[in-house]
Amino acid sequence: MSQSPPTRARVTIPLLDLRAQFAPLRAEIMAAIEAVMESQHFIMGNQVRALEAELAAFIGVRAAHGCASGSDALALALMAAGIGAGDEVITTPFTFVATAGAIARLGARPVFVDIDPRTFAIDHDAATRAISSRTRALLPVHLYGLMADMAPLMELAQRHGLTVIEDAAQAIGARYRGEAAGAIGAMGCFSFYPTKNLGGAGDGGMVTSNDPNLAERVALLRDHGSRRRYNHEILGTNSRLDELQAAVLRVKLRHLAQWNERRREIAARYRAMFEAAGLADVLQMPAEPAERTHVYHQFTIRAPRRDQLREFLQRAGVATEVYYPTPLHLQPLFAYLGYRAGEFPNAESASREVLSLPIYPELPEAHQIRLVATIREFYGL
Ligand SMILES: *Cc1c(COP(=O)(O)O)cnc(C)c1O
């Protein structure tokens, strides 16, 4: 899988421009990389330890443990919670494959429930109905940078003795009633894939927790169940974050709060521009429920005639993306679960209507102006 390939050769307004982020940080990042190279210490050293402490402080949790990817963060969290064969984990079908993939990898069963059509997050009434005697955990996803409605989910989990694991891969820095993504459930899972709000120079991930026992288990599991060299307490794996990644991420973490704020300003500008263009009633803007801080990993609208609009924008050199065109219950990979088309109407209509527009802290206002004008032209307004 390549990292966001250009959809057409003539793209002049890209979805994301990582070089614009790198340019002002070049000296700092290159110095951080050089320091690791000079040390020749690449695995589990000072950089990883420092990043873990800094991220735990940023999110407001007792512990954070780096690992190899966001996908592994999910698997490690589920393993730490003791999830395995025969267990059921309730999650959303409207997410990246890794969410349910982590559940299935452990031999457990992903149980999909429909989403709230405004926030795209798991619907807690649907989750309530899906609980069985085998349900062990809830795995909500904070899609596009907006947190799921956590209070009723936590209450539901408490009532049934379930572990809540947050898929916060798209929502680092997002808040719900003052608490950060990854600080509410038993564990939070993050990704440092290069295009995420905090992106590394390669793959990386992290698991957060306020529970010392779970945090300790994650720490063991990612390093072959070993606390002491060649002494293995439990069956784990090699899923460590490396020093080079940690060094780069530490430089970027210092800018994350400001970058997220900038994404929010750009989102507000989109809203104002769509309003002024008379498109506010044609397109559905992203929801921003009270007491939730959206960090706009994506600015995702719902649009009539979505595919034609996307094609029109593409021909005008404007890149957009569809996250995600096929809900997970209809993916070949999960055919064995026996779901059918029509079973989750909100997820299915979302997959037909969503369109993510360019958003990143350095996005030029001129790009937004041109994009909105092109959309207006498409709808003949
Ligand atoms: C990116 C992402 C993941 C997986 O993260 P990787 O680091 O790519 O393995 C999991 N869940 C969601 C919602 C994501 O967006």
How would you describe what is shown here?
This protein is an alpha/beta fold and 381 residues long. It has 2 domains: 21-250, Aspartate Aminotransferase, domain 2, CATH 3.40.640; 255-378, Aspartate Aminotransferase, domain 1, CATH 3.90.1150. Helices cover 40% and strands 14% of the residues. The chain has a 7-stranded mixed sheet, sandwiched between helices. Strand 2 (88-91), helix 4 and strand 3 form a beta-alpha-beta unit. The longest helix has 34 residues, at 243-276. The protein is globular and about 70 Å long. The model has no long low-confidence stretch (mean pLDDT 96). The structure holds pyridoxal-5'-phosphate (PLP).
What's the arrangement of secondary structure elements?
Blueprint: H1 18-39, H2 46-59, E1 63-67, H3 70-80, E2 88-91, H4 97-105, E3 109-112, H5 124-130, E4 135-139, H6 150-160, E5 163-167, E6 175-176, E7 179-180, E8 187-191, E9 205-209, H7 212-221, E10 226-228, E11 231-232, H8 243-276, E12 292-293, E13 299-302, H9 306-315, H10 345-353, E14 354-357, H11 365-378
Parallel strand pairs: 2-3, 2-4, 4-5, 5-8
Antiparallel strand pairs: 1-9, 6-7, 6-12, 8-9, 10-11, 13-14
Helix pairs in contact: 1-8, 2-8, 3-4, 3-7, 8-11
The structure holds pyridoxal-5'-phosphate.
Looking at the structure, the CATH topology of the largest domain is Aspartate Aminotransferase, domain 2
State the CATH class of the largest domain. Answer: Alpha Beta
Q: How many distinct beta strands?
A: 14
Strand arrangement across the biggest beta sheet:
1-9-8-5-4-2-3
Which cofactors or ions or other ligands sit in this model?
pyridoxal-5'-phosphate
The H-and-E topology, N to C, reads as HHEHEHEHEHEEEEEHEEHEEHHEH
**Rounded radius of gyration (Å):** 21 Å
Q: Level of helix content?
A: 25-40%
Q: Tell me which CATH architecture of the largest domain applies here.
A: 3-Layer(aba) Sandwich
Structural class: alpha/beta
User: Number of helix segments?
Assistant: 11
The main pleated sheet reads as:
7 strands, mixed
Distance between the termini: 38 Å
The CATH H-level superfamily of the largest domain is Type I PLP-dependent aspartate aminotransferase-like (Major domain)
Query: What is the 3D form?
Result: globular
**Total domain count:** 2
Question: What's the mean pLDDT score?
Answer: 96
